[in-house]
């Protein structure tokens, strides 16, 4: 397994960016996991605080870890177009660099923690034809809840810069519960969805709200709710079952 720090100029963001990647050695083709960080982290966090390289090695997959600052993986109302960056430009650039990366649905996956769990589900539900499965760990999946009740200072400025008019978020494509319902009504083939959240996690209501919406829509997904908090002990433990599943997709 090769670890690479990749720097390139992003046409979408109009500046240089840095991406960390794990690339299998001795394989001509491999599946790719796009792995997203949380609000207080950056693209180095998964490599620093988890055993993702060991899990990727066992699964024989590539892992791409971009940085999106504090954008909630969104084309910001007052800021950069991070969703366009991760959804369009990043996969195209990575496939240009690494010929073993496929654009087939069964070869592409998304996962993340907290803000990154939101980003992974947003990506997979926006483009369900591109991703076989997505994983949210302690995900901030209910944005209206986060805007109203998330205990962080300056959240009005944070979410205002991201979404603009906060009264318009509910029911939009930035509202994952609404986006999920929209895809179901369209008859889309959804990616497999895997969720995990700790019982002591302050944003546990987000995962529960998404799970209840999925039940209401008769969508099958995997949801693990167990002892744990909003920390790397929980995320490292629960990313492993997801990476172990990836080689089975055909």
Task: Please provide a written account of the structure.
The chain has a single domain, classed as Alpha/Beta hydrolase fold, catalytic domain (Rossmann fold, 3-Layer(aba) Sandwich), CATH 3.40.50. 38% of the residues lie in helices and 20% in strands. It is built from nine helices and eight strands. The chain has an eight-stranded mixed sheet with strand order 1-2-4-3-5-6-7-8, sandwiched between helices. Strand 7, helix 8 and strand 8 form a beta-alpha-beta unit. Helix 7 runs parallel beside helix 8. The protein starts with a strand and ends in a 5-residue tail after the last helix.
Describe this protein with a few key phrases:
250 residues, alpha/beta, Rossmann fold, 8 strands
Draw up the topology in text.
Layout: E1 2-10, E2 15-23, E3 32-36, H1 45-49, H2 52-59, E4 62-65, H3 82-97, E5 108-113, H4 115-126, E6 133-137, H5 143-149, H6 155-163, H7 176-186, E7 192-198, H8 204-216, E8 222-226, H9 232-245
Parallel strand pairs: 3-4, 3-5, 5-6, 6-7, 7-8
Antiparallel strand pairs: 1-2, 2-4
Helix pairs in contact: 2-9, 4-7, 7-8
């Amino acid at each position: 397994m090769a670890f690479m720090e990749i720097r390139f100029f992003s046409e979408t963001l109009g500046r240089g960016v840095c991406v960390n990647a794990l690339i299998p050695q001795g394989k001509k083709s491999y599946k790719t996991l796009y792995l997203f960080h949380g609000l207080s982290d950056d693209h180095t966090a998964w490599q620093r605080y988890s055993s993702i390289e060991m899990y990727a090695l066992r699964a024989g997959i590539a892992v791409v870890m971009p940085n999106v600052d504090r954008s909630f993986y969104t084309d910001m109302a007052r800021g950069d177009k991070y969703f366009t960056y991760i959804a369009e430009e990043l996969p195209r650039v990575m496939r240009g660099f690494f010929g073993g990366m496929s654009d087939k649905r069964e070869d592409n996956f998304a996962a993340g923690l907290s803000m990154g769990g939101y980003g992974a589900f947003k990506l997979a539900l926006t483009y369900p034809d591109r991703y076989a499965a997505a994983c949210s760990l302690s995900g901030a999946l209910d944005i209206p809840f986060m805007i109203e009740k998330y205990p962080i200072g300056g959240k009005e400025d944070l979410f205002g810069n991201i979404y603009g008019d906060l009264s318009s978020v509910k029911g939009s494509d930035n509202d994952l519960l609404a986006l999920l319902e929209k895809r179901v009504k369209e008859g889309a083939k959804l990616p497999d969805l895997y969720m995990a959240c700790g019982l002591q996690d302050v944003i546990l209501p987000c995962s529960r709200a998404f799970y209840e919406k999925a039940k209401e829509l008769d969508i099958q997904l995997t949801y693990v709710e167990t002892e744990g908090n909003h920390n790397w002990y929980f995320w490292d433990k629960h990313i492993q079952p997801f990476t172990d599943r990836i080689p089975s997709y055909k």
